[in-house]
Design a protein that fits this description.
- This is Sesquiterpene synthase.
- InterPro entries: Isoprenoid_synthase_dom_sf, Terpene_cyclase-like_1_C, Terpene_cyclase_plant_C1, Terpene_synth_N, Terpene_synth_N_sf, Terpene_synthase-like, Terpene_synthase_metal-bd, Terpenoid_cyclase/PrenylTrfase.
- Belongs to the terpene synthase family.
- The chain contains 22 helices and no strands.
- It has 494 residues and is an all-alpha fold.
- It has two domains: 181 residues, Terpene synthase, N-terminal domain (Glycosyltransferase); 302 residues, Farnesyl Diphosphate Synthase, CATH 1.10.600.10.
- α1 crosses α9.
- The longest helix is centred in the middle third of the chain and has 36 residues.
- The radius of gyration is 24 Å and the shape is globular.
Length: 494
Amino acid sequence: MKERAEVLKEEVRKVVKGSMDVSKTLDLVITLQRLGLDSYYKTELDELLHSVYNSNYNDKDLNLVSLRFYLLRKNGYDVSSDIFLRFKDIEGNFPAYDVRSLLGLYNAAHIRTHGDEVLDRAIAYSKSRLKAELEHLESPLKGEVSFALETPLFRRVRILETRNYIPIYERMSTRNEAILEFAKVNFNLLQLLYCEELKKVTLWWKELNVQSNLSFIRDRIVEMHFWMTGLCPEFNYSLSRIILTKMMAYITIIDDIFDTYGTTKESMMLAEAIYMCNESATVLLPEYMKDFYLYLLKTFDLIEDELGTNNSYRLKRLVRGYSQEIKWRDENYIPKTIEEHLELSRATVGAFELACASFVGMGDTITKETLDWLLTYPELLKCFTTLARLSNDVVSTKREQRGEHHASTVQCYMLQHGTTMDDACVKIKELIEDSWKDIINEYLKPTEQPSVVAQTIVDFARTADYMYKKTDSFTFANTIKDMVALLYVKPISF
């Protein structure tokens, strides 16, 4: 299968190099991206998009304008949204366009920043129209519209989009057979690799459980690896996925101790031991934590030996936040403002630690300067951790508040503005949309860092959106079991 993949890769390369027309070029680029093949032709696709950016095109075709805008912004071109003003009527709507054009507009408009009022209006109008038209549509357009209304194209987890889109592309009369076959072969090879990685981390997880004897922790190793495939799905990031899965496992265990199982005193003991990051600190710990702590140090030593990087400092930042949240809980303290809450709770969602860890296994692309830059907590990373915290809180707060738990951003908003929980959740969802705008604004800013850095942080935001779409799918993993089966168990047939 690997040999066939190499043959198909070069066949598709000929298709890429033969692309000329703007419309066909855009269709090819979006197809390769959705099928998960674009990473093989990065140089060629960058050249094509640069050509599209500088070429004339039919700026009266809403579908074409939308796709051009979407792909250029998605790939870092800060193109103006003013192009869409010509399609509005005097009331600010887009009534003269078919469903396919409105779908393109809807997806394009979600790559918006603050100040893109025309895109705000485009989303509101196209969403309403697409919902009204949905029951009258036929496949595959009906499926496309349904997917978009649940998750617009830019926010979809890339590897899951690939798994869902291959059968859609297969039904298209305009499909290219070489591209289709390569997409199938490539996905099936990735699936085999993911299963090998899952086997490794599962054996590691079982050894950790045996040695640590922590019966109370959430057993979510499959879900952890599933989440990490969304961050860096390509073949060459296998080591990153394994490191990330282990990091997330430790974060989950520490969270369960601080949040659910440990007493305040025991949690503070664990925090002190992690600050020390030394075997001698085991004397501080209750008996049930000692083996876990030693295993934690052992894993960090192995990663440091292999990659020459230290991971312990990131957990120190995390447990400081957990310790403060315990203090809030014990004192029944609710922060006076959302921002006061976020100053702490951005840290305790674990997103910063994972984002930093994601780059240590990416090879020479990521330099020490890049890692140092990440440790300054740049605005893009701050925007992502805000989104992750708000997304987690809005689906978890009702469950968590049934027992003893520190106040979430939802309770904080309720106190600050005197609203009900339902009204607060509506507002938090608006703040999540603002966070997406912030992320895209930072994503479009020129930077000295490798492009993979911003792209990976955006992928983190996509996975948070997926895992917290309707519920906390990490805690209630049955909600994603079908997608887990498609990613690991069911290969794509030919």
